[in-house]
Amino acid sequence: MGFGDIRSPSGLKALDQFLSDRSYIQGFVPSQADVAVFEALQAPPPADLYHALRWFNHIQSYDRSSLPGVKQPLAQYGPAGGADTTAAANKSDEDDDDIDLFGSEDEEDAEAARVKEERLASYAAKKAKKPALIAKSSLLLDVKPWDDETDMQKLEQCVRSVEMDGLLWGQSKLVPVGYGIKKLQINCVIEDDKVGTDILEERITAFEEFVQSMDVAAFNKI
């Protein structure tokens, strides 16, 4: 369980892989679990670890002392946590709201069932009042053609034809790279929970007749 030495290359890679399909270390909102891992890092991850860097910049933007939950030892967080980390996230949410969603397993009589239903209804009503946090990022992509004979207008049309929920294309320009070759530099805004750089790269490089490669030139939280 855990990331090992989180400041080592293997630990950073484990963190990046762990965050490839997650926005936070535990649960669906930032918590003291994120603070514990953030403080252990002490410095931003390398730029090629997109998921870890996105998460680091996101947590850095918060007043971390105000985040909910109870900070645990670093070894309690990370891959291989499985059901344990999920249970810890649920426990953090329950402590935050001072609500025991599920009574003792020994209290399965009618009165216990009624109390549990009331607590679930109260919890749902309280959560409904909280505004949903939508984490977004602004990306600057470099899309490179095969050679100077590639139709760059057609290449851009292919890139913009990529449509996903949570993806919005912005401005673009052609930037010389040498020997008469130009690359397409294009902005986009993504919702972090819906669009990842990996799937974006996969969709764009699928136009292999025009696209040689895609790189993330800049990654900024909004």
Automatic annotation (TrEMBL):
Q: Where is this region: Disordered?
A: 70-110
Residue intervals of the Elongation factor 1 beta central acidic region eukaryote domain: 101-127
Q: Which InterPro entries match?
A: eEF-1beta-like_sf (IPR036219), EF-1_beta_acid_region_euk (IPR018940), EF1B_bsu/dsu (IPR049720), EF1B_bsu/dsu_GNE (IPR014038), Glutathione-S-Trfase_C_sf (IPR036282), Transl_elong_EF1B/ribsomal_bS6 (IPR014717), Transl_elong_EF1B_B/D_CS (IPR001326)
Which GO molecular function entries does the Swiss-Prot or TrEMBL record give? guanyl-nucleotide exchange factor activity; translation elongation factor activity
UniProt keyword Ribonucleoprotein present: no
Q: Where is the Translation elongation factor EF1B beta/delta subunit guanine nucleotide exchange domain?
A: 136-222
The upper taxonomy is: Eukaryota, Metazoa, Chordata, Craniata, Vertebrata
SUPFAM superfamilies, per the entry:
eEF-1beta-like, GST C-terminal domain-like
CC per GO annotation: cytosol; eukaryotic translation elongation factor 1 complex
Q: What is this protein called?
A: Elongation factor 1-beta
Origin species: Gouania willdenowi (Blunt-snouted clingfish)
